[in-house]
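From the pipeline queue, job 12 of 40. The input is one protein chain; the requested action is below.

Action: predict structure.
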Amino acid sequence: MSSPRIVLFATASSPWCAEARAAVAAAGEPWEERDPDRDPEALRDLIMYSAASLVPTVVVGNRVMVGFDPEAFTRLLRLPPVKFPAPADYDRDEREGARRGRSGPAVSRAGGAGREAEAWPPAARPADEDYSRSED
């Protein structure tokens, strides 16, 4: 059995969720409702999709709408599914890195690795300017 195309993350007490629930039901497609207040796994999935725990959140295929707008939902139903590229072969990338003298996955040096540590706490700012609010 395949999973439904539409997943609605909603709570029982929200009027916005009730509006979203009615529109999703009227769409005439298979759908699933998940309540993040009652199901910890649903809450985890909701945060994975939206980076927050805001309801209603509607997932159509692999597109996410946080909040609910009936017109945007109708447009969302008409969009074709997004095609993602195949995942990279991380094992192959690590083997390639080992041949070039690196161990483990490649690390970008633009972030923290390889950068000199800065003194903490930072040096105090010179007091040559008065930053206080003046009352002219």
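Job complete. The radius of gyration is 25 Å.
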